[in-house]
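Query structure, 112 tokens:
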């Protein structure tokens, strides 16, 4: 987070606009794929009072400082062989081929 939480402001593009209040800016440092299983040993208190692995947390749930710091250290130290960004070209080509196939099939379809 690059700014404090502004609880008097809202992000107007949620499907449930009034459910989540507050707005803050985020500066992305880097993107790195880290599997959920890497965080399975970090436990936090859930909103219902139960202690569970951080991977059970939900969107907008606050992560305590020490556990968040542990997560950042895991991400920083995790060695992966690739990243999702490397796969975008593959999925773009796959989507393009799929759409071409759909168009070809629709042109060849006739009603009797």
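Result returned for the query:
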């Amino acid at each position: 987070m690059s700014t404090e939480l502004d609880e008097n402001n809202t992000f107007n593009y949620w499907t449930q606009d009034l459910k989540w209040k507050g707005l803050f800016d985020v500066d992305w440092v880097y993107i790195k794929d880290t599997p959920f299983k890497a965080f399975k040993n970090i436990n936090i208190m859930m909103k219902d009072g139960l202690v569970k692995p951080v991977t059970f947390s939900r969107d907008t749930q606050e992560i305590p400082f020490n556990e968040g710091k542990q997560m950042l250290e895991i991400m920083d130290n995790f060695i992966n062989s690739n990243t999702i960004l490397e796969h975008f070209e593959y999925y773009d080509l796959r989507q393009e081929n799929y759409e071409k196939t759909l168009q070809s099939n629709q042109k060849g379809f006739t009603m009797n």
